[in-house]
Amino acid sequence: YRAKEGKDTYQFFSSDMDEHLFKRTILEGELRKALRQDQLQLFYQPKVDLRTGRITGVEALLRWFHPEFGMVPVGDFIPIAEETGLITQIGDWVLKTACAQNKKWQQQGFPPMRVAVNLSAKQFQQVDLVKTIVDVLERTKLDPQYLELEITETVAMNKADSVVDKLNNLKALGIQLAIDDFGTGYSSLSYLKKFPIDTLKIDRSFIRDISKDTDNEAIITTIITMAHHLKLNVIAEGVEENEHLCFLKQHDCDQIQGFLFSKPLSVADFEKAFQGLQEVAVGYQKDTES
Ligand code: C2E
Ligand code: MG
Ligand code: MG
Ligand code: MG
Hints:
Layout: E1 2-5, E2 9-12, H1 19-36, E3 40-49, E4 54-66, E5 70-72, H2 74-84, H3 87-108, E6 114-118, H4 121-125, H5 129-140, E7 147-152, H6 153-157, H7 160-173, E8 176-182, H8 191-194, E9 199-202, H9 204-208, H10 214-229, E10 233-237, H11 242-250, E11 255-257, H12 267-284
Parallel strand pairs: 4-6, 6-7, 7-8, 8-9, 9-10, 10-11
Antiparallel strand pairs: 1-2, 3-4, 3-11, 4-5
The structure holds ligand C2E and magnesium ion (MG) (3 copies).
One magnesium ion (MG) binds next to loops.
Protein name: Diguanylate cyclase (GGDEF)-like protein
Subcellular location: Cell membrane
Domain EAL: 24-278
């Protein structure tokens, strides 16, 4: 990172400087510009259905390429966007861009895929969230079944009553709903009955330790079993190793996402890689005969 100092000299921030101050003051201003100057981009990480061996969806992941700082990690600027309220504009841009891109892929002849968009707490609390989403779907002409929203347990647990209403309204539109980072919140499980959820995404922290930590393996298999009893889909995120994939296949996980299959890719890279990735995905297919 570099920050402006004096008139036109730049100085690199060293690690012992006040990082938070830097982030608040510099990044906030820069983030406003980023929206206007087209510095934001969405990358897309494919998800594979282990039963069909097909790419069934992609998760849209935000990237900020700053002309001087380079790529700013999403974990550094989303919290600031939330604090400053900029998340509303950024979130609207993400939704619109992801839906428009997915529609475009369908028109280009790619097999229909679902695009997943992450919603942060502030975005979810917006009173006009449902209206915003309806507008985006109408403008982009994307069929709602091809949009999925990922929310975390903590988001879901906020102000439980209005949350249920909002989720029901979204569900009624035909949108898919997923709980992201499942297993890392502090919430009770009772919301799983109240909320019209379609999918649980098992947090990466559990997947990472497959074959090293039997406790985590027990947690994973329990989540999968519970999800299936509740008639929910279950996807594992952060699948990096072949061992992870084998374990998840063996324990009947529905879908996987992670670096083993593909990193998040730019639109151009995703389009170039698609055929090859689809062939790899076929190899992941579960042997349902035996
Ligand atoms: P998330 O929604 O849980 O997204 C998954 C994160 O894990 C992504 O990080 C992805 O690049 C990373 N990942 C995927 N596969 C692997 C793997 O095999 N190994 C490892 N080590 N990492 C993997 P990313 O893109 O840095 O995003 C981090 C978080 O930032 C996301 O977590 C999400 O909570 C948030 N985020 C990203 N894009 C958006 C957005 O458009 N809006 C909002 N509100 N939040 C976003
Ligand atoms: Mg996510
Ligand atoms: Mg996640
Ligand atoms: Mg995560």
